Amino acid sequence: MSVNTEITGLLTRLAEAWNAGDATAYAALFTEDADYIVFNGTHSEGRVAIESSHRWLFDGPLKGSTMSLPNDRIKVKPLADTAVLVISEGGTDLAGELRESIVSFTAVGTPEGWRFASFQNTRVAR
User: Fold this and answer.
1) What is the pLDDT of residues 36-51, one digit of tens each?
2) Is 102 exposed, middle or buried (0-12, 13-18, 19+ CB in 10 A)?
3) What is the model's pLDDT at position 126?
4) Which of 6, 48, 66, 107 has the highest CB neighbour count under 10 A?
5) Which residues have a Cβ under 8 Å from the Cβ of 74 and sit 6 or more positions away?
6) Is 33 helix (H, G, I), strand (E, B) or coil?
């Protein structure tokens, strides 16, 4: 299986976990020591923090929101044998309000498969 296919699968599982409101499944797609930076500059460090913050979001302000599945505008740039930069367009929808973003990830190969080691979300200006 190609790296592009594996990364697209990882992004798909990320969106599926978000859409199910499953903070545990969402966080499991990140490394134990991942860095997660959202559009307003909030920085979560580590899988435990990512899970905790998303549990709060999925039970509260983002309850019922949906994340778009990956599209054909995914850039996967090799950085090393088991590390890639991923840039993707997408967004979330909350009660009919689409919040478009460009996101970047560093994905790394692990014994469990590819996982995200970093995430940065930038909202698309309109």
Assistant:
1) 999 889 999 999 999 9
2) middle
3) 66
4) 107
5) 4, 7, 8, 11, 86, 87, 88
6) strand
**Residue 90, Cα to own-chain centre: how many angstroms?**
10
Q: How far apart are the first and last CA of the chain?
A: 38
| Structure tokens that stand for 50 in this block | 């990512």
Supply 102's token pair.
């460009």
Q: What is the DSSP string of 52-85?
A: HHHHHHHHTTTTT-EEPPP-S-EEEEEEETTEEE
Helices and strands (H and E) in the chain: how many: 3, 7
CA 43 from chain centre, in angstroms, equals 14
